[in-house]
Amino acid sequence: MTDYILALLVIIVAIFIIKKVATCLIKSIVAIIALAILVYLFTKTGLISI
Fold first, then answer.
1. 15 vs 37, 39, 44, CA distance in Å?
2. How far apart are CA 15 and CA 27, in angstroms?
3. 42 HSE (CA, 13 A, CB side)
4. Mind listing the pLDDT tens digit for each residue in 1-50?
5. Residues near 13 by Cβ (< 8 Å), separated by ≥ 6?
């Protein structure tokens, strides 16, 4: 349950940062980092098996 809350928190923070920051490079870096964290969390919980 904590992993799902953490994943939701990562998504919310990433969206907040993307809306506040204007440059395209930083938007893509934040999106990649958020995606990497989500993939890690989902593989840890067993939702995705790589």
1. 14, 17, 23
2. 9
3. 13
4. 677 788 888 888 877 877 776 577 777 888 888 888 888 888 887 777 76
5. 34
Angle formed by the axes of helices 2-20 and 24-45, nearest 10°: 180
Please name the residue that has the structure tokens 């919980």: 45
**In the structure encoding, which two tokens stand for residue 1, read together?**
């349950």
- Taking the complete model, does pTM exceed 0.70, yes or no? no
Distances in Å between the Cα of 26 and the Cα atoms of 1, 15, 23 are 30, 12, 6
For 8-17, the CB contacts below 8 A with 24+ separation are 10/34, 10/37, 10/38, 10/41, 11/38
